Amino acid sequence: MIPRGFVGVEAQLWVWMVAMIRPGAAFFAAPVFGANFVPVQLRLILSLAIGIPALSAAHFVLPAEGLVSIQGFLLVGGEVLAGLALGFAVQIGFSAATIGGETIGNAMGLGFAAMIDPASGQHNPMIGQFLTILATFLFLAMGGHLALAATVVESYRALPPGAAWLSANAIHSLVLFGGTLFAAGLSIALPVGFAVILVQLVMAMLARSAPQLNLFSVGLPAALLAGIVLLAVAAPVIGDSILAVLQQGLEESQRIAAG
């Protein structure tokens, strides 16, 4: 027999677990929160701290059959998909900085130079890693982490637990927004990448006019020097472009949260 003081503890633990699913899935797919260097325990604590008040405001009641049932599985599946969509929309905007850095690095001739990304553990081009770090600082400076948490809380109004399946319009909007990832990355790389390509065209004309000129010993240092100088000059423009893309990702996440 369960002691009187522990009556309802099991049901409360199930409610807490449901409260952690959507914020946890969103943080898993979102930038910064989903990085490998963020401890899992910290993500669990944040998910619980955000999910409990949000779930309390939604007046959630456990299914009569419990979570180990068809209705419970559908509830958990909807929560996971809703959280992943909210975080993935922000991740799409964040990844545009990496694509822009890869484009600039390839134009500078640094496509072979790679570093280990501490967030994903994968090898990324050096310039791409630099812009990823810049995007991380800008994301935190603009309060993107707080905006994402607020979006997760607001999503419980339009997408309450048990009815959190995304509409066809929301999925279609997310797919179309993913298509803008490459365009946004190219817009970030345009100021530097286009100028570096012009430098390479000038070096190609010099190589045609002076065949004895070693293009590899002259062209690569010239492209590298031009790229570094242009990165310093165009840093404000690149930062504004990254901010705009991050803002678009947060807005897309808010549209998904609105149902």
Structural write-up:
With 259 residues, this protein is mostly helical. It has one domain. It is 75% helix and 2% strand. The protein contains 8 helices and 2 strands. The protein has a two-stranded antiparallel sheet. A hairpin with a 6-residue loop joins strand 1 and strand 2. The radius of gyration is 24 Å and the shape is elongated. The two termini are 44 Å apart. The mean pLDDT is 80.
Strand and helix layout:
Elements: H1 9-29, H2 40-57, H3 70-108, E1 114-116, E2 123-125, H4 126-141, H5 144-158, H6 168-209, H7 215-233, H8 235-257
What proportion strand? Answer: under 5%
**In terms of structural class, how would the helical and strand content be classed?**
mainly alpha
Number of helical elements:
8
Mean pLDDT: 80
* pLDDT < 50 stretches: none
